[in-house]
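Person: Show me a sequence?

Helper:
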Amino acid sequence: MFIKVCGLRTSTDVAAAVRAGVDAVGFMLTESVRRVTPAEACRLAAEVPPQVLTVGVFRGEPVDVIRECVTTAGLRAVQLHGGEPRDHYEALRDLDVALIRATSVAEGQNLQPGSYGEDLLIIDSPQPGSGNQWNWSYLKTNPVAGRWMLAGGLSPGNVTAAVAALSPWGVDVSSGVEVRRGVKEPRLIAEFVTAARSNGSGSPHSG
């Protein structure tokens, strides 16, 4: 089970996520209560061990802005979360970073991983970052295969059931491991990782 914790803002956040055994950490480089600057993302990414993927999250920014931010921050993945067209992915491919497409069932985009040239797909809530659980029934009746991650309203209390019901390749969390909006809680991060892997699926990096 691949696990990403998004919206990290401090060294304490990063240390807690790494200690819990996550596979990826996300830094918001777009309008958000969890936003960090490229310089801050660079400093935090330097504290992440090489086996953990560092992701810059963008929503609606021009390609040249994304390229500059990723280069400055030294990140290893780009997550586009604003319904960007296929040519955005093509324009970023030469950066030699993993490309992640985030969408929702409501957006009407193709839910087949890789259909926009991305390496990973995230299926999120129609209101990303809200912390609200959305109706997963569509994914139960229209299962998705391949490298896709479930996001949107996940928490230590519901991620075990979500994984059992939908069999995603991975899960992505932000609000569900916060004590208040934008403030991560190390204990909740650890609990989330344990719950997500409680069916026996370890990290892809564990062998």
Q: What stands out?
A: The radius of gyration is 15 Å. The mean pLDDT is 91.
